[in-house]
Amino acid sequence: MLQVAFGQSKYYSDNLSENVKRGIRQKLRRGEWPSRAPFGYLNNPKTRNLEIDPIKSRAVKKAFEDFATSQYTLQSLSQRLSFYGVVSGSGKPLCKATLQRMLTNKAYLGLIEYEKETHEGCFPKIIDLATFEAVQKILKSRARPRKRKESHNFPLTGLLTCGECGAAITAQYVHGCGGTYRYCRCTKRLGPCSQKYLQEKQLAEQIKEQLQKVAISDEWHEQGLARIEKWKEEFKNNNAFFAQNLENKMQDTELKLNKLVDSYLEGTIEKETYLLKKEELIKIKTDLFSEKSDFGRKGISWIEPLQEFWKSAHQAKKLAVSNDLYEIKSFVAKNGTNRRLVDRKVAWLRKNPFPILAEKNESLTLSGWRDLNSQSPGPKPGALAN
Fold it and tell me: Do residues 65 and 126 make contact, with C-beta atoms less than 8 angstroms apart?
């Protein structure tokens, strides 16, 4: 009797396990997430699928974009996310292993990876493929970091080069006059150089003065964004040819995917080759679907760069009065070229269209129309288009 009872228990357990596996396979075929939602998503009990968390998804997108700039490590990114309120259950910053899992999670691409096989999901993605691939490349390059000495807190190093000899500008601590100060200087690695030291505080003030020249006020920023949104609505149209081209590519990709599955079922290709090729085709299909979703914006592709420029100009206003040297460095590195320090003066070439804005600001300030330190609006947003 005991053996019969054990046999019935084993049968029930095996049957339950198979039913659960069958249910998971059905969910994967429908593109539904089979378990608890990853950070940035919510489990929708009605659709039994994922939906984007409007708040946490922005933190995920920000984490990917910041890490893709190569300016952050996993530890510094954890501290940055904790500043935005993204912490562990105990209230501490996320550990590096948790961040590693988040930055390698293909769910943010709208894909489902289950038992080393990638499936197409029918839930919205948070990260675009280009950003995700850039993050994976950085993680791979840092997988085996070289041993190095503990770095000092010199936020502006690596930003400028010497205007005389072309060597990099480094920094060092100097003790004296009752305190410790940070000075920037030429490394002189390329030969003799006559350039003198410059205190980091003075260098930061010069950079802020340059940022003032391309800054816009809060009111001007709001007016400009409102005008850009109006342009977006005016120029938004449906491009039938572009949509049809995407549809043909999607059908072609779907055909390749079906042929790949048939080849695998017939045993003509190995499982490893099948899984790699399937993942590649699903990524292409997902990316094409994303392009099709917003194909109407193709005719106004200039809108987004203009919007980003306008936001950057407003960010320059905030950075001009900020003490976050890391953010200042990131902004200057992104929007300036040929950054150099010569005769204790900092200079760089601004990327377009910042020179136009600087010229407008200078002319308006000289004519008394606008004070960059005030909150009064400047010229009309359309002035930059003239």
Answer: no
Name the residue with tokens 């009752």.
Answer: 178
| Among 154, 163, 173, 160, CA closest to 194 | 163
Quote the CA–CA distance of 133 and 61 in Å, as a whole number. 14
Give DSSP secondary structure letters for 299-364: GGTTHHHHHHHHHHHHHHHHHTT---HHHHHHHHHHHEEEEEEETTEEEEEEPTTHHHHHHHHHHH
Q: Give the integer Cα–Cα distance in Å for 236 and 228.
A: 12
- Sequence-separated (6 or more) residues with CB below 8 Å from residue 46: none
Instruction: Judge if pTM exceeds 0.85.
Output: no
Handedness of CA 57, 315, 351, 77 (dihedral sign): negative
d(CA 377, CA 215): 11
Query: Which tens digits make up the pLDDT trace of 197-255?
Result: 898 889 999 999 999 888 888 888 888 888 888 887 776 655 556 677 778 888 888 88
Q: How far apart are CA 259 and CA 276, in angstroms?
A: 14
Contacts of 329 (CB under 8 A, 6+ apart): 155, 156, 158, 159
Q: How many CB atoms lie within 10 A of CB 73?
A: 15
Residues 247-270: tens digit of each pLDDT: 888 888 888 888 888 888 888 888
Q: To which H or E segment does residue 257 belong?
A: helix 240-266
For residue 371, give every residue at least 6 positions away whose Cβ sits within 8 Å of its Cβ, in sequence order, or none.
365
